[in-house]
Amino acid sequence: TLLEEALAGALEAEDKKAMAHPHITMGDIFFVQERDIPRAVKEYEISLAQFRELHNSLGMIYSLSTLGEYHHLLGDHVYGQQLYQEALVVVRDFAPNSNPYEFIIAGLGSVARALGNPERAVRLFSAVSKLFTINFANEHPLDTHFRQDVAALRDQLGEATFSRLWAAGEAMTREQTIAFGLQTEPVSQPTQLVQPNETQPATDALTE
Questions:
Q1: I need a surface site. Which of 80, 149, 154, 181 has the fewest CB within 10 A?
Q2: Model pTM greater than 0.90?
Q3: Separation CA 104–CA 175 (nearest Å)
Q4: How is residue 202 annotated by DSSP?
């Protein structure tokens, strides 16, 4: 296949950056087409190791945040949170204006809900509220998943509490949001996750 040829060419040239990208694409294929998250995780772990060696901040952010989402979907919410937070540290220290920031924060909101921390979840979601005001022609399944989380939180907490927490989250600056996202809350009663039916690969965030 073209991917195999690209990977073979990168190996021959010892181009680690070129090697990392095919592994991401393979991970997306395993997830999207085969619904094989464990195999997707293995591909992303390879890409992450290569991006670490290259000190490629955007590659690390994308690999870490995607691995966080995969482990979250697999039910390992605590490890998923750790991966998301590691991605957020890289955002804070090396790529403060990177695009994946909003999805990392929303991902941490989804994890917080799964770990039984609805108030934290609402504040995180509302800190990146613009994600929920954009209507895409072909909405990414994770966007749908986040919207479902927000709707469930509104029902769970009631309109008054939800609105108060939402306003508090919207008032946070980017720096405050990152600091809040890096806090680790105690685990309460985990919430059963409803996995998105499908997702689409997104590799355009890797350009520097």
A1: 154
A2: no
A3: 14
A4: -
